[in-house]
Amino acid sequence: MAEDLGYDGVEIMVTHRAETQLASVINECSWRFGLPVLAIHAPTLLLTQQVWGSASDKLWKSADLAKQVGCDVVVAHPPFRWQGNYAERFPSLVEEIEEHTGVAIAVENMYPWRAGGREAAMYLPHWNPVPYGYRHVTWDFSHAATAEDDSYENVAALGSRLRHVHLTDGWSNGFKDDHLVPGHGNQRVAETLQLISQPEFGEGGFQGGVAVEVSTRSKRKVGQREQMLGESLAFAREYLGQV
């Protein structure tokens, strides 16, 4: 589908499925469809805690997979607060892996968990990596909406530390992670893409990738998923100045 719609490449999410973990399979698909792998998403989600052993092993193995498939970016969520020693060591571990492998570990912005009018701090040191010293960051617009945060301001503050973007959208409802088609929520997505497309952004312009990450699970009719992904690609090309 990505090839048919005209995408430039793909991001691979490592899950329980064996084909997402094997460089040989990924490289075969990449060659067959002519789509390079632009990023590996480490299995740091709540639902992938059983993939690839310990939390630190997940990052090391993701970096190794990235090198095997020819990309230099790994997307990683910040640690959960219950991950103890790993959470404490996370910033230094990220630096160690980057220096040892040459792969950028781009820490993704998340959001606080809310229920019953209460807010729980589930990530350490925080759900927003921007104020911290990570050299590389992934920015997700839907997560920003859930956090009731401003993507434009955060991306502007990141500058050259912005390494990867998850292109999507959402409504600032404080709870649901929507992952809408860009332009269908209330984040300043278009303005933010225009910002990073400027040659003076950061130090010499944005050097990373933009990956569409929209939820199509509820779409069952023929052509619905293609329409959403095609619209998202057109949005990206327009506001990144590629048309």
UniProtKB/TrEMBL annotation:
The keyword Isomerase applies. SUPFAM superfamilies: Xylose isomerase-like. The lineage of its organism: Bacteria, Bacillati, Actinomycetota, Actinomycetes, Micrococcales. It holds the Pfam family AP_endonuc_2. Keywords: Carbohydrate metabolism, Isomerase. Residues 2-238 form the Xylose isomerase-like TIM barrel domain. GO terms for molecular function: isomerase activity. Gene3D superfamilies: Divalent-metal-dependent TIM barrel enzymes (3.20.20.150). This is Sugar phosphate isomerase/epimerase. It comes from the Bacteria. PANTHER family: HYDROXYPYRUVATE ISOMERASE, PTHR12110:SF47. InterPro entries: IolE/XylAMocC-like, Xyl_isomerase-like_sf, Xyl_isomerase-like_TIM-brl.
